[in-house]
Design a protein that fits this description.
The chain is an alpha/beta fold. It has 13 helices and 19 strands.
C-alpha cells in the first residue's frame, strides 16, 4: 500500500464532500457536541457540488489504493482551508504529507505567511508544524457557536534561503562509554547551527538523521569526526526544499537499534559490505537468499525484487526468524539490506556469531543504492520509507 499526494480532479468532488462530512461527525465529535457537529456538517451539506471551490484553489488529495484518505486546500493568499483526514487514517502520516505539499507550494509561490482557522481537534497538529495561535474565537454556524483558533506560520526565513536543505543520515558503532556526557555539547552545537532532526547516543555508538544548511551539516560532521572514536564516520545526503523536521532531539538509548541479544558488537565483526554497484549481481544469483531486515510497514512501501520479507513487527524479532527459518543450513549465502545500513550491521554480526559462513549486506543501505544506481538499472520496486516528514522517497531518485 502506497500513499500518493496529487492535485484535485473533478471526479473527486463527491468523495471529498463525503470525507469532510464523516470526519467532522466521527472525529471532531471528540471536542464538540452532537449539535455542533451536525451544524458544522449537516446531512444535506455533502451533496453540495464542491468542484468549483476545489478547482479554484490548490487542492491536494491523499489517495491510497484508489481511496481518498485526506484533502487540504491552499489559497494564493496563504490561507489553508478544508484540511481533513479520513476517520480511519488518523495518525498515519496523511496530514503530514498533505501539509508538506501545501508548504512546498507556498514556497514555490513565494508566500511568506500561512494562516488557518483550526478546530480544537486540529490545533495540536498545526502547533507541531510550527504554527502559533493568534486568537481564539467563537464562530456562528447554523445556530451553534463553535470554538476555533486562528493560527499562523511565517515562511519568510525559508524564502530568504534559496539553497535547498541538506538531510544527512549517518551511524557509527564505537565504544561511547561517555555517551551521556556527549548529549549536552552536541545539543548546543546543533542549536547554534540551526539543525533539526534526531540524534541517538548509546554506549555502542551514534545514529542520526539531521537536516539544515550546507554549512551547518558540514560543521556538525567535522565536529563529530574530531572525536577519534568517530573519525571514520560515514554519512549519506539528500536534499529537500523544506526542512523535514520541526525540532531537534538528542536522545539517550541503551541500544542504537533494539536487538535484545547481548554480546553482539558490530564494531568488532560484521558481514561483508557490498557496494551498490555490485548489489544487483549478488542478489540476482539464484544461490543467494536475499532478506529485507526492515519492519512490515516499511516493506509495504517497496523492496528489492525477489527479497524475502520476514514479516517483522519489530527488529528484535529478527533472531527468532533466523533460528526458525535459516538455522538448518548455515553454509547458504545470505544478502541483507535495510534503509541506511545500521540494522544490517547488527543482523550480520549476529548471524556470523551464530556460525553462518557467508553473510553480505548492502553498504549504505537502500538510500545509498537509490542515490547511485540509475533508475533503468535499479532492481528496487516501489518507494523507500524514511523516518521523517517525507515518509517515503521515490525509488527513482532521492
Amino acid at each position: 500500500m502506497t500513499m500518493q499526494i496529487r492535485l484535485f480532479q473533478i471526479q473527486d468532488s463527491d468523495r471529498i464532500a463525503q470525507l469532510f462530512h464523516d470526519t467532522v461527525r466521527e472525529v471532531n465529535i471528540r471536542d464538540y457536541s452532537p449539535e455542533q457537529v451536525k451544524a458544522w456538517a449537516p446531512d444535506d451539506l455533502y451533496f453540495t457540488n464542491w468542484t468549483e471551490d476545489c478547482s479554484n484553489n490548490f487542492t491536494y488529495v491523499a489517495e491510497e489504493d484508489g481511496e481518498i484518505i485526506g484533502f487540504a486546500q491552499l489559497e494564493t493568499n496563504g490561507h489553508i482551508d478544508c484540511f481533513f483526514c479520513h476517520k480511519d487514517y488518523q495518525r498515519c502520516g496523511v496530514g503530514t504529507r498533505l501539509y508538506r505539499a501545501i508548504e512546498a507550494k507556498a514556497l514555490e509561490l513565494k508566500i511568506d505567511r500561512l494562516f488557518v482557522e483550526v478546530s480544537i481537534t486540529a490545533r495540536a497538529f498545526f502547533k507541531s508544524r510550527g504554527f502559533r495561535v493568534v486568537k481564539e474565537q467563537q464562530v456562528a454556524c447554523r445556530g451553534e457557536k463553535l470554538t476555533n483558533f486562528v493560527m499562523e506560520k511565517s515562511l519568510a526565513k525559508y524564502l530568504e534561503k534559496p539553497d535547498r536543505f541538506v538531510v544527512a543520515t549517518f551511524y557509527h558503532f564505537a565504544d561511547l562509554t561517555d555517551y551521556r556526557e556527549m548529549r549536552s555539547p552536541i545539543t548546543d552545537f546543533c542549536n547554534s547551527n540551526d539543525l533539526k532532526g534526531v540524534i541517538l547516543l548509546a554506549p555502542e555508538g551514534i545514529n542520526s538523521t539531521i537536516a539544515g544548511s550546507r554549512e551547518g551539516i558540514d560543521a556538525l560532521l567535522s565536529y563529530l569526526r574530531s572525536d577519534p572514536r568517530l573519525q571514520n564516520l560515514e554519512h549519506k545526503e539528500t536534499t529537500s526544499d523544506v526542512i523535514p523536521y520541526n525540532k531537534l532531539r538528542v536522545r539517550l538509548k541503551k541500544e542504537l537499534v533494539k536487538f535484545g541479544v547481548s554480546g553482539i558488537d558490530p564494531s568488532k565483526e560484521v558481514g561483508t559490505y557490498v557496494d551498490p554497484k555490485d548489489w544487483n549481481a549478488l542478489i540476482s544469483d539464484p544461490e543467494v537468499i536475499v532478506i529485507d531486515t526492515r519492519n512490515i510497514y516499511e516493506v509495504e512501501f517497496g523492496t528489492f525484487k525477489g527479497a524475502i520479507d520476514p514479516n517483522l513487527d519489530f527488529f528484535h524479532e529478527f533472531p527468532k526468524y533466523v533460528e526458525e527459518n535459516l538455522g538448518a543450513n548455515k553454509q547458504q549465502k545470505i544478502a541483507m539490506f535495510c534503509t541506511g545500513g545500521i540494522r544490517c550491521e547488527k543482523a550480520s554480526a549476529y548471524m556470523l556469531a551464530q556460525g553462518f559462513d557467508e553473510v553480505y549486506h548492502l553498504k549504505g543501505g537502500i538510500l545509498k543504492y537509490l542515490a547511485e544506481i540509475p533508475p533503468e538499472e535499479s532492481l528496487w520496486e516501489g518507494e523507500c520509507f524514511v523516518f521523517d516528514d517525507r515518509i517515503a522517497t521515490k525509488g527513482s531518485a532521492i
